[in-house]
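User: Round two. Same drill as before: sequence, then structure, for each protein.

Assistant: Same drill it is. First protein:
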Amino acid sequence: MDLEARAHSEHPDELRLWLRLMTCTQLVEKQVRNGLREQFATTLPRFDLMAQLERSPDGLKMNELSRRMMVTGGNVTGITDQLVAEGLVERVDVAGDRRAWRVRLTSRGRKLFNDMAQAHEDWIVDAFAALNGKEIAQLHRLLGKVKQHSHQQMAEAT
């Protein structure tokens, strides 16, 4: 049973919409996870770590990776250790700090990530194939309004 099935007609439309958004997110994420596993023998967290490194060619410190991925340092270390062992990322000393290092993609890692990123993009495009361009733009705009409202509420609460 998906999240949306929990809602009933007597629930507010907003709750039913939120549950539909969550269900759609879970379905698309499941497709992405399956694709990464089947086509690249990898996981979404590994893909996410490599995506962060792809955006920072000089590499990132472990604590920065952890912050960007919103996971613990232990999680980042475990994934990094695997990717180093496979020759997809490397650790580079940080000048002036003997305790720290930067992690960056190797050329092999960059090539693999580019292949995965193209497949990922194709999966996302396919996930929204039921919508035309106008509908996609409208949904994007409407969700932007929800996002902006949420940011405003959070700012007012602090």
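Second protein:
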Amino acid sequence: MPTDRSSLGLQHIVLLQGLSPERLKQLAARCLWQSLPVGKPLLLRSERKSDVFFLVSGRLRVTIYAANGRQVTFRDSLEGEHFGDIAAIDGQPRSADVVTLTPSVVASLDRGAFLALLRDEPVVAERVMRSLTALVRQLSERVIDLSTLGVQNRVHAELLRLAQAAGINGNRARLEPAPTHAELASQISTNREQVTRELNALRRDGLLAKDGRALVLTDALRLVRMVEEVRGA
């Protein structure tokens, strides 16, 4: 991939926004660029690799597989995001697997260059700190949910999280494409059958509706109240 096209791609990475064109060209030249098909494993848990990745286009899933083969999904990464900075900072093995959900273009920066970037660009270092802080808060909330909420309430909480990420407009949210029941199950540590049962109950109650490939949340405020009630908010 030519350097000028590569630096243009890096302009869309949130972590790097505001850097000079010359700095972006330097980073682009230092990066390894990859075009990946759907379903391609990019990182494996416990790998001793410490590059940082920039998702130029596409969508990725951060997940792990338990010894019994059960998948536990942490989050999805979207175009413009970065990942892999934990291993780059502490030099320890990877903490999760990363696989492509759609055809994706990624640029990877080696650990030495990434740490130099943090030293040279305070605004980038501050963004990394903020993203890691947000990750800690997200994982803390998930641990609390998994420890204290039943399956029904975990389904409600995950649907609310997805709705907020998609954008709530006029008390409604549209999830498109709709998450599969297996995907929801892996995100809240349960099985597909239980997720199916709870989603059917929400549809019968008028809170969810199917619209083609989309799942529509018809009353976001009501779902917020349901989640806050069980969380004690």
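Residues 122-148 form the longest helix (27 residues).

User: Perfect.
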